[in-house]
């Protein structure tokens, strides 16, 4: 179990949230939802030591997160990357092996085989020599999921993986997430399409500058919490079983 | 055509020209390789800054009679640290921080050099004086080339991953700061070597232009490194030929050749697809 206690993060002295406490369970796909600017990305970045925290303890099965850094795979938002970089699909997936290799070691046959297999799992073998800028959004997202596969991580964190991608890719990625769940990994997904919340996530963390609620999706995904995190109007629309809305 | 034959005849005859050619080729290789990482990291301005910021180090080394590489490295790293410090401890953006720090270092360098030496020496530092390369200079340049190649071979995967996706590198625990400052250190060494061939003002051109040209031709980093080194070599040799034949300053001659190769690639490289891009805009 991944536990966060007393987490406070501030940008320029303005706290994004303070004293956040939340748990992520192994063998579950946990969704993080909340309005724009609620601190979703900030929460996971602070958790992974990517940004400074004012306070907070983060532990994975009782060990400090720093000592288990190599057990985390992070699939960041695609827009944060330079898609003109001279790297092809296969070499990108291969960078997933770098963490375990450590300094001074180059990827050998074993690492290359793992990358090849990961590309097969996301059905992109025929694209392995393609420069990454020449892929669709969905294909690129699958490439990053393939990189997470070769990392053999225990905790996998994905930031808005389904934004702007085709349905085929979304289904393919969801299949991988379910495989990871069956392997008892901890999967954390920042998500914004509220329609699919009940289908996709076992657990849910509802965020709005602090934790609104968290727990099994069936319990916490309710009109009261949605009203607190988003608005009464949105909540009414979501739970009247009409055509969905996106927050 | 005759002038080319003359150039090679002279090359066989004059030691100074051989030394110049050897140095120019080595500088072409190292600046192409390091320059590739500089442009891929979006650090062209930083490359320019560091190459100028070594000037006070050159002056101090001259005054104290120590190796120029040591003086330059100290000031190059100092500038890189200061740029990072100012940007991270204030709301000032990195490019502004670079502008403030490097111009201050450059100015300091001018003052120190004018205190230390005559103006003719300053002229050589600014514009390069490849025909006056000594055997000791060749040795130093060879050592730097060795360091550059070792650095890139040993840390190839770290340089690749931090250039492409620094956030990811951080998540698996790589110390991206050390890689950054190591690259800055190697950059200062390359700068000092390139100083001899093209001078401080044009070092940035040797770093960026051959690398940018290589970028237009390939989608693979390793290929880009070889191509950039190749373009660096070709522009160095051709530039030296122009310099010898028409009595042009070596620095500008080399840089103009590099720029011409870039221009040709800009129009002709398949990846650049200049004509197709133009068509799609007019549609």
Beta-strand content of chain B: under 5%
What's the CATH topology label of chain A?
Answer: Rossmann fold
Measured between the Cα atoms of the first and last residue of chain B, the distance is: 45 Å
Low-pLDDT parts of chain B are 279-283
Mean pLDDT of chain A: 88
CATH superfamily membership of chain B, which one? ABC transporter involved in vitamin B12 uptake, BtuC
Pattern of helices and strands of chain B: HHHHHHHHHHHHHHH
Q: Which fold name corresponds to the CATH topology of chain B?
A: ABC transporter involved in vitamin B12 uptake, BtuC
- Shape verdict of chain B: globular
Shape of chain A: globular
Topology:
The complex is a heterodimer of chains A (247) and B (283).
Chain A: E1 2-11, E2 14-24, E3 28-33, H1 40-47, E4 55-60, E5 63-64, E6 72-75, H2 89-94, H3 98-101, H4 109-121, H5 137-150, E7 155-159, H6 167-182, E8 186-190, H7 197-200, E9 203-207, E10 211-216, H8 217-220, H9 223-229, H10 232-238
Parallel strand pairs in A: 3-8, 3-9, 6-7, 7-8
Antiparallel strand pairs in A: 1-2, 1-4, 4-5, 9-10
Chain B: H1 2-13, H2 15-40, H3 44-53, H4 55-64, H5 68-88, H6 94-116, H7 119-127, H8 135-154, H9 156-164, H10 166-171, H11 176-198, H12 203-215, H13 221-246, H14 250-268, H15 274-282
Protein name (chain A): Manganese ABC transporter, ATP-binding subunit
Keywords (chain A): ATP-binding, Nucleotide-binding, Transport
InterPro entries (chain A): AAA+_ATPase, ABC_transporter-like_ATP-bd, ABC_transporter-like_CS, Metal_Ion_Import_ABC, P-loop_NTPase
